[in-house]
Amino acid sequence: DTSVLAGLYGPAEAKISKELPDRAALEVLLRPKVGLPGVLERSREQLLRQTCEAVVLGVLHPRTAITLVLQVLSDAGSLLSCCLNAACMALLDAGLPLAALFCGVTCALQPDGTILLDPTARQEQEARAILTFAIASSERKVLMANTKGSCSVEEMQQCLAAAQRAADAVFQFYRDSVRRRYSKS
Amino acid sequence: QVWQIRLDVHLLNHDGNITDAASIAGIVALCHFRRPDVSVQGEEVTVYTPEERDPVPLSIHHMPICVSFAFFHQGTYLLVDPTEREERVMDGLLVIAMNKHHEICTIQSSGVVMLVQDQILRCSKITAVKVAEVTELIQKALENDQKARKEGGKFGFAESIPNQRITTFKMESAAVDTNDVEEQAGEIIAKADPPAEVFANPVLHTPGTAQIGEGVESSWGDLEESEKEEAAEEEGDSEAAAFECEKVETEDTSTIRETKNDEPIVLSDSEEEEVVILEPQELPRKTR
């Protein structure tokens, strides 16, 4: 089971070199399970940052810094979408103003053309292409798409449609989690 | 040749006494780790993959566990395993690392407190008791994990998180209704614009750089040429030669493209983007 621990800090005072005059500056740090963060982590951090900046209403908190730290605890496939989900839940739990929620869904395209949602590590290795989508909660629009491998346009559209269906289940999970959390306290 | 072992300790939550927690985590990780099996025959070394031969555990001689003591009021009060708040206000800290054979591996004292001999002896007795408990817990956990792995049950971090707490939520894998997915996708594609023309043959200038397509003709060149024409008409002949060279180049590359359809075209190890070919049969030369 893939697990990612997310910690969100902010909106806090930003360093003068990093502050933006009209909006909040969002920074994402992704720490791998083994070793020091490398180039792959840096590129994933930028992907996550762009996705979060699209939903966070940064203009309500100018000249502040929002820091999101993600720690990979275990990786059994679909890591990027797990990071996306963890990021959104962290934003939710922290109470930051958001325009929409988002969720991450990974699709694996097998060599024979079948689509697998949320593939395991073994399935990811054998797949012809792996597509990760960040899907917003308003009208299921696509916030981010990341592809590894080659696929045709039709296959990508099919994966996207399947991911949009799966997003419903993930958003339901968000709702249940938040309800349980705030009903007990 | 030796093995290098790397131990990464990730601190997830700091509520005091991270030394003890980190030491326990570290020693358990080392006990749990399995390295690939190796066989040495004279000078030859073969390393087997985990699929070929079962990985082998490290040889751990003993398990040192740290226990921390916080002192208050110049040694009057003693707290074992301090929390974050207690750590902040303590006078001094004593860390003793001991294994279950009652051998002290490390003693470390810090802070403004001065300790008396019998205090340290008392602490080491407390440590012995704690270490015995912790070592037993570790052994049980390692055995459970080994059993789970052998019997095919679930193991790992996600399983060990307690389930019914407020801060952890689990959902079993959910079924997703994908009945109309293909039709929906087909509709989207039918309405979308057709994709741009595909350039199938990349042109390799150097190993590591390739050029697909020719790009838009730069209008900078037009400006320069028109200026040159106005300024220096005696260079008209060389201009004409330059134009011809360019034409020849495009013709040449297009013929190359026709002949080799699937393979990428390697021009040379020239480092420029524009290669001026002086004669059709000659190989392109470096222009700088």
Write the layout of secondary structure elements.
The complex is a heterodimer of chains A (185) and B (288).
Chain A: E1 3-13, E2 25-31, H1 39-55, E3 64-74, H2 79-94, E4 102-109, E5 115-117, H3 121-126, E6 129-136, E7 142-149, H4 153-184
Parallel strand pairs in A: 2-3
Antiparallel strand pairs in A: 1-3, 4-5, 4-6, 6-7
Chain B: H1 18-32, E1 34-35, E2 38-41, E3 44-47, E4 56-57, E5 65-72, E6 77-80, H2 84-89, E7 92-98, E8 104-111, H3 117-151, H4 157-160, H5 181-191, E9 203-206, E10 209-211, H6 219-231, H7 236-259, E11 265-266
Parallel strand pairs in B: 9-11
Antiparallel strand pairs in B: 1-4, 2-3, 5-6, 5-7, 7-8, 9-10
Q: How does the overall form of chain A come out from the CA principal axes?
A: globular
Low-confidence stretches of chain B: 229-263, 282-288
Per CATH, the architecture of chain A is 2-Layer Sandwich
Mean pLDDT of chain A: 91
Largest sheet of chain A: 4 strands, antiparallel
- Compressed to H and E, one letter per element, the order of chain B equals HEEEEEEHEEHHHEEHHE
Number of strands of chain B: 11
Q: Which pair of chains has the greatest number of interface residues, and how are they split between the two chains? A: A-B, 33 and 28 residues
Mean pLDDT score of chain B, rounded? 74
Query: How would you classify the helix and strand content of chain B by structural class?
Result: alpha+beta
What share of the residues of chain A does DSSP label as strand, in percent?
Answer: 25-35%
| Helix-strand category of chain A | alpha+beta
At the fourth level of CATH, the homologous superfamily of chain A is: GHMP Kinase, N-terminal domain
Distance between the termini of chain B: 48 Å
- The count of helical stretches of chain A stands at 4
Reading the helices and strands of chain A in chain order gives EEHEHEEHEEH
| Shape estimate of chain B | elongated
Overall tally of structural domains of chain A: 1
Strand order of the largest sheet of chain A: 5-4-6-7
